[in-house]
Amino acid sequence: MLADVSEPDILPTMPDSAPPHDSEMLPTRQCRYPDLPELSPQQLHSRREGVFLVLAGLFLGTLAMLNILGITRFIKLFEIDFDGDPATKATVFAVAVGVLPYPLTFLCTDFISEFFGRKRANRVVWVGLLINVWVVFILWLGGILPGFETVDSSGELVRDAAGRLPVFFEMRALAFGAVTASMAAYLIAQFVDVQLFHFWKRLTKGRHLWLRNNGSTLVSQIVDTVAVILITHFYAHALNLDPDQALWPQLLVYVFTGYAFKLVAAMVDTIPMYLGSHWLARYLRLPHSGHDHPVVHTPLESVG
């Protein structure tokens, strides 16, 4: 069994007098699968870093996309008339369009946590925060630079007949609200997800993948959903609320709807988590969750 599969083995560093060499960072240990050939250190390194790059890229790309889409549109899932009174409005259950790809980010961090360890998962989370800051900076910069929009005598942008600003500035205002809300919620929720994932992994001694996958995601999503809804309303004022109805019941409906969507998504992603973990363990020559495999020390080959 590998002592710590989350951190691939590193060869002893060469003396200071020796020139640096690519082989210093090549992994030298892999799990033996009877139906699979052993891989060279170069192949192991290429596969493991390639998979990490894909997972991190999916995570960061999805994060940037959902923060731009954010609260630009709300999707009505369904509505229920609880009291049956036609004089009162039915309760509408809706989610922001930016929520749709969000569950993928937790699946990616779970894969990274499973195969590359907590440190790399936390690094990806921090880079995701920097992506948020970068998005805000570009939106801010694009708004202050001179453009071709019509302005009035006071220098304010002229609104159209519907009372809307030019498309970029409408999107910019909504994205600022979405990013501000998601930055706070995301940072808390993603770290909660990573920490709980490893807590359950230690508690179950590496078994019961479904428990740490769902347990970490479902708890972190409570934190994320509540924070996003509250910040989106009280800071961005972007929720579609009825001023004639009580505020908190409407906010709770948004929280319930958003969390219910993420709950279903988390349950569904157990399937790709199991299938993906099984395939990736074999592809990366790492042990399956909760199972022992013989360890093979691969010979170091020249890469020069």
Short description:
With 304 residues, this protein is mainly alpha-helical.
Descriptive notes:
The chain has a two-stranded antiparallel sheet with strand order 1-4. Strands 2-3 form a two-stranded antiparallel sheet. α2 (102-116) packs antiparallel against α3, α2 packs parallel to α4 (167-203) and α4 (167-203) runs antiparallel to α5 (209-236). It is mainly alpha-helical and 304 residues long. It is built from 7 helices and 4 strands; from the N terminus they run βαββααααααβ. The longest helix is centred in the middle third of the chain and has 37 residues, at 167-203. The chain has one domain (38-78, 90-147, 165-290): Orthogonal Bundle (Arp2/3 complex 21 kDa subunit ARPC3).
Keywords:
two-stranded antiparallel sheet, 304 residues, mainly alpha, two-stranded antiparallel ribbon, disordered C terminus, single chain, 7 helices, Arp2/3 complex 21 kDa subunit ARPC3
Number of helices: 7
Poorly predicted runs are 1-23, 300-304
Largest sheet: 2 strands, antiparallel
- Please indicate the percent range of residues in DSSP E strands (runs of 2 or more): 5-15%
Across the major sheet, the strand order is 1-4
The count of β-strands is 4
Report how far the terminal alpha carbons are from each other.
31 Å
Query: Which fold name fills CATH's third level, the topology?
Result: Arp2/3 complex 21 kDa subunit ARPC3
CATH A-level architecture: Orthogonal Bundle
CATH class: Mainly Alpha
- Using only C-alpha atoms, the radius of gyration works out to 24 Å
| SSE pattern | EHEEHHHHHHE
Overall, the morphology is: globular
- Nearest-integer average pLDDT: 76
**Overall SS class:** mainly alpha
**Total individual domains:** 1
